[in-house]
Amino acid sequence: MAEKIDIDLSKRKRLNAGKIIKTYNDRSFDEMKATTITESMCDIEALTNERKSTDLENHLNNLKYKSLGESELCFYHNTLIILMRRKYKIDKTFAEFERLWEAESDYLLTHLSLRWIVSACDTFIDHSNNTHRAAILMNVVTLMNTLRTYETKNFLQLSTNAESMPLLTEKPICFMLVTCLCTMVLLIFVSAPMIA
To answer: What is the pTM of this model?
Structure first.
């Protein structure tokens, strides 16, 4: 019985993935860049507070809603990552992911959040056959995780009597440096010829 539940859950995590990908088959990257995610593109009634849903369509609907104002190309990029994490036709999906990065690396590095740039690094690490690329991108992910740990430590060490810190309107310099590093590394390993 437990095995059947695992199989059903596994299938549910990928249910309708083919249909979702088909919606992008006839769209060019330029068309997706020109399309901004709007509320009308989301199923507002189906939104949930779940951070991650086992239902693929619900998960992507929630993500699309969080992506309001971003280009459809960024959402497509994020969708490819989610599909690979859910083990949907990994080889074919990763080939499309690489094609996207080869064609649109400048655009993606300018428009993706740091979270999704790091996720892209993780994706190249997990699925690329190029071990040099994976090793160097692992350093980017490690640096980012170290920075997150440092900032969490500083936050946790604030005294309970300390005044609350105002929200920053600008990204801290350390995040800008990490973003620059991620950008340089991805540009080197995506647009340059592959290291053998």
So the answer is: 0.73
